[in-house]
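Issue: copy button drops trailing tokens. Both records pasted manually instead:
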Amino acid sequence: MHFLIVDDDRSVTKLMSAYLTKRGHVCTGITNSLEAVPWIKKNDCDAIILDIGMPNIDGIELIPKIREIARFIPIIIFTGMGYDGEKMKQALAAGANGFVSKGMPPDEVYLALQRTIAAVRK
């Protein structure tokens, strides 16, 4: 699978990319949310891992823009904000398919990603 990781924290993007690459996946990391939509227009990916709290365009604002050009790609919110029920409702209403916490162990994050992607593909 090819994952697009959109997170303004470069260290998070690198760590997640390294972990997913070890699991046999291809990853592209974008740290500027303004670059996400142009990248998606020009490239293919199988799933998008998207941070909520970013400068320029936050994840919740970015979801509908992604959905305009990529209606069926799974979007998984990757948040370090802890569980914020209202933000999660907003993200799901905007078109996200699920969410995982940055604080989870990597293997649990991976399992959550796999479950969300499998559910979208049914």
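Record 2 (pasted manually too):
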Amino acid sequence: MRRLRRLLLKRAVRRAERAFVVEGAELVRAALAAGSPVESLFVAHGAGASGGVAELVAEVHRQGGRVFDLAAGVLERVASTVAPQPLLAVVPALDVPLDQAVSGRTLVVLCAEVRDPGNAGTVLRSADAAGAGAVVFCGETVDPYNPKTVRASAGSLFHLPVAVTPKVTGTLDALGALGFRRLGAAAHQGDDYLKVPWTEPTALVLGNESSGLAPDLAARLDGLVRIPMAGRAESLNVGVACAVLCFEALRRRQAEVG
């Protein structure tokens, strides 16, 4: 249980052990459906009797994973939420090298210093829903395996390739060398997103929630893109902006094929 707690709380432990925790039957089911092996499954006291949980326990046993039935109150002391799910599972890290994640993709989303775990999870979910090819977590961006990010992704973490890279600048250089046009999302500058040619290989770069894209990235970007706003809002949430831009890219690709 100490290891489980450390995986929930510490990014350095998750990175060193190449493992993370998923919470709840739906996320455990998503992991298994994606072919991600469950190393260990922890079942809250009394939860194993329900049909859905029993099926997951049987599947984890079938795949050779370990199942632990917890005493009353134990899971509540370990879980990262006030009202925890009745299941916690330890699964291996999913990220792959950058070139493998983006190979053959038309649209890649790059998180450059996105710090809020809920926003990062929404980016994953939006990118997945809009058919983006991969999501890259760069530099000081929140860990994709942060428990809040995993929950907010609603299973999308298991649906599309994810890469984790140490520096934004180096990642942008690598994407440029791989033939991607690098477009930074900005609140008030750049081209109207409806006029951008989304059908060529593009890396959509999302900056920090409060400060946006760092000034030192300008030389490594091929342009900026903005979403014109009719109201008085200063800007859009980064996850919402990601959804708008990715779905426009999807619409444009579908229109070209159709």
